[in-house]
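Exam revision sheet. Question 4 asks you to relate a sequence to its structure. Input first:
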Amino acid sequence: MKRSERNFARRIDLTSLQLFVAVCELGSIGRAAEREFIAASAISKRLSELEATVGTPLLYRHTRGVDLTPAGESLLHHARSVLFSLEKMQGELSEYSDGVRGHVRVHASISAIVQFLPEDLGAFIGQHDQVKIDLEEHLSAEVIRAVQEGAADLGICNTAAGFGDLQSLPYRRDRLVLIVPRGHDLARGGAVTYADTLDFDQVGLHSTSSIYVALRQAAEAAGRTIKLRIHVTSLDAMCRMIDNGLGVGVMPERAFELMRGVGQLESVHLSDAWAERQLCMVARDFSTLPVTARLLVEHLQSQPIDSQRLAA
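Answer key, structure tokens:
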């Protein structure tokens, strides 16, 4: 951090930021003073000092209240982010007094969450019951972005998303299969290519999901387009749509095995090379992760790479 940046950080007063946000939210120094139980003159003084610190006006003051200047809009965005981070820090630190001895933020794709993470994280918590894991489901590209931006310590997603400047370690392999209603024409001849399915209506996942991107690329390579009937956001919703005659779809094989009770459906092997996938763990730097996060990475690395152990 440059010297000027350190001096700026020291001059910013958190109480003044809180009062600035209150004034912005209520549109009035007077109303903010009532809510925060502080004199309006004291808030005005703090706002003036804040404007002197940043070197530009933050508010347009008028008889009806205040409006934000462009600089004020920018500061409001950053102030809310800083105050939210402080609240989150307080919440996480308070957990240590309650016996929690670590906190790991994990973002993962739907494929990883449905197929593997419940058992793997359950086993980890069984060994480290004082560690808290925050798990969020996101599309693979969003997982990568969250790790790059520091919103997640660890990401788990498909390699097709591309990892940029992140480090990666292999986690699990999975296989995509075609899901069709029982007795469907495509289920009568054994394995098929994805191109063989393009004459039929399709039920697809989110348009930016790694699975749908792979399907779109396969269709383009075959000189065809996907006859998409509907996009869904979950694998169980896909099964229900297929079971009710809205088309065929593609999902990970083990995910389908876990949802066998959803409809009268069957899976068909896809012979395309891209149907065999590698899921990876990603981090900005595995060596600098907190101790509890490194313990989780070691645990996940110790799990069998081949998904078929669990699909049997």
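Marking note for examiners. The radius of gyration is 26 Å.
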